[in-house]
Amino acid sequence: MLARGRSTHFVMTTNPEVAEEVAEQLKRFQALADKAGLPPEVVKEGVELLSQMPRLESLRDLRKKYQALVAGKLTPGEFQSERDALQASIKLSRDDAEEFCDRVFKVARIADENYVKPVKLADLITAGIKGLYRHLEEKLPAELQERVDNASGLSDAQLRKLVIDARMHLGRRPDIKKHKDSNIFLEWMLNSLDQHSTYISPEALREFERQTNQRFIGVGIRIVKDFETDLIRVSTPIRGSPAYEAGIRTGDLLTKIINYVDKDGRKLPEPTTIECKGMATTDAVTHIVGKRGTKVTLVMERKLADGTTNIIPFDLIRNTVVVETILGVRRNPDDSWDVFLDRANKIV
Predict the structure, then answer these.
(1) Would you call 84 exposed, middle or buried from its count of C-beta atoms within 10 A (0-12, 13-18, 19+)?
(2) Could you report the per-residue pLDDT of 160-174, keeping only the tens digit for each?
């Protein structure tokens, strides 16, 4: 539930009809669990999942198994088998957890050795763990919380085990795949040093270099988030770029990105379509850029003068784009920039 823009785990309101149905489900589940002799951890999990809808899709699938058990669609034996299979699919391997631990410890060591003030490794590690769980709106289990609270007395090996256990508890999740888990951990960890310290992910660094080099391989559009539609809006096409030559205009809304090749330029078995609703601009850039000479389709929504909208697919070939270093107020008819805010008073 959101209150004043911040997330909270407190129940602020309930739907009486739904609450009554949930209470009945819980009652039937408890009776089934007692009769079938389900393990305590399974009973606890079932009560939590049946009480409220989880955010993660994998846990929603698990919730459906409990609902099927209560509805008599699964026998206790079938339920246990399907639950175990689903749990196994979302379990993080220890090797992956150790790789995660290696990444965060490598940066923690660098901070320990190079920060202007003495730092404690335990403080860095606990800040990262707390930050990761807070970001994901997950509560630390009591056993992990106790170890975090007493981390100052742990050895390096014990701190490593704490990190591994904390990461394994979260399992495989779509919201922290592709090293997003370590990126979040390191951002919180380094920010605990002071407000000016942070971690820049490799993806963010590449985007920064792309912006500062003023030359990149892409289609040539500047984009911003359009909060009214939750889509990506074109702030301006870059003059001379593939997007500019194709006729993409300022104000066009990007609704879909269709890729035909992977990041290395290899042809995909089938084109992949990425919906842009709710997408961050950095993610949109990641999907748009690619190898020079490869095709990408940008599907734009354009508002017309009569108030109607057109959906226009633009087939573009990625090429070298040279970013304009000086922008004006508006384009002149010849596409040069008009830099004057007030020509009469020579204000530019």
Answers:
(1) exposed
(2) 999 999 999 999 988
DSSP-derived 3-state class of residue 148: helix
C-alpha span between 226 and 252 (Å, rounded): 10
| Of 95, 176, 160, the residue nearest 125 (C-alpha) | 160
Residue with tokens 């923690």: 108
* DSSP letter for each residue of 305-324: TTS-EEEEEEEEE-EEEEPP
Nearest to 226 by CA among 273, 275, 277, 274: 277
Per-residue pLDDT tens for 60-108?
A: 889 999 999 999 999 999 999 999 898 888 899 999 999 999 999 999 9
Quote the CA–CA distance of 258 and 313 in Å, as a whole number: 10
Nearest alpha-carbon partner for 236 in 226, 254, 249, 217: 249
Question: What digits encode the pLDDT tens for the residues 97-135?
Answer: 999 999 999 999 999 999 999 999 999 999 999 999 999
Q: Give the pLDDT confidence of 210-249 residue by residue, as tens digits.
A: 667 667 789 999 999 998 999 999 998 988 899 999 999 9
Phi, psi of 225 (to 5 degrees): -80, 130
| Pairwise CA distance, residues 135 & 73, whole Å | 36
